[in-house]
Amino acid sequence: MSTFAQKVIRVVSKILKGKTLTYKEVAARAGNSKAARAVGNILNRYYRECIKLKRPTIPCHRVIRSGEKVGGYAKGEKEKIKLLQKEKTG
Q1: What would the CATH number be for the domain defined by 3-89?
Q2: What is the pLDDT of residues 29-43, one digit of tens each?
Q3: Averaged pLDDT score across all residues of the chain
Q4: Any catalytic annotation for residue 60?
Q5: 43, 60, 64, 84: the active-site residue
Q6: What residue segments make up the domains of the chain, in order of their start?
């Protein structure tokens, strides 16, 4: 895993329950504000690897697109919305 990918995973793992960051914000905190698309790809690969190896995952559902749009999620957009709503109300 690249240094940037490791930083992305570290940033995302620290997003508190009920909070979100955009892909661009994660990229900036990881050191490259122009790598928002790469953040999405890193999270997708990391999630799939965790599932394959039966390791705990990070809260990648807390990363959203700019403009408060939900964005992609391995388990589907509806599941991502459900998780985010549950965290904000619970």
Answers
A1: 1.10.10.10
A2: 999 999 999 999 999
A3: 92
A4: yes
A5: 60
A6: 3-89
